[in-house]
Write a structure and sequence with these properties.
54% of the residues lie in helices and 12% in strands. By secondary structure, the chain is α+β, with helices and mostly antiparallel strands. It has a 3-stranded antiparallel β-sheet with strand order 2-1-3.
Length: 116
């Protein structure tokens, strides 16, 4: 594994399906929505965010099955999910091709730059 600036320049193209939570090396392997260029560290961060999103989704389902009349509102429960999704789109915007960046900007999900 490279370190420092070398890792930055070791970016490769990847194809991302946010809806499926997939990161593909082969654009023909499955349907994808966005194209990015990422190094190993950036790819790992994106994978971690997808895993967090999946865990949050499972937790929401469990909560509603277990507590259909719970005290938390649907909005409160969705806040964590939406925050992770926003982080995913921030990272995808940062790593995206020009077309990917334009697409994300057209969705109005990209908030001002911050830490991901």
């Amino acid at each position: 594994m490279q370190t420092g600036n070398g890792a930055y320049f070791a970016r490769k193209p990847f194809y991302v399906s946010v809806s499926a939570g997939q990161i593909l090396e082969d654009p023909g392997a499955a349907a994808y929505e966005l194209e990015i260029r990422a190094n190993e560290e950036e790819l790992n961060k994106l994978q971690e965010l997808f895993e967090e999103l999946s865990s949050m989704d499972e937790a929401q389902v469990f909560h509603f099955v277990k507590h259909p009349y719970g005290t938390a509102s649907r909005d409160e429960i969705n806040d964590g999910y939406e925050a992770i999704l926003a982080d995913i789109y921030k990272l995808l915007h940062m790593l995206g091709t020009d077309e990917t960046k334009r697409h994300i900007e057209s969705m109005h999900t990209n908030e001002p730059e911050g830490t991901v």
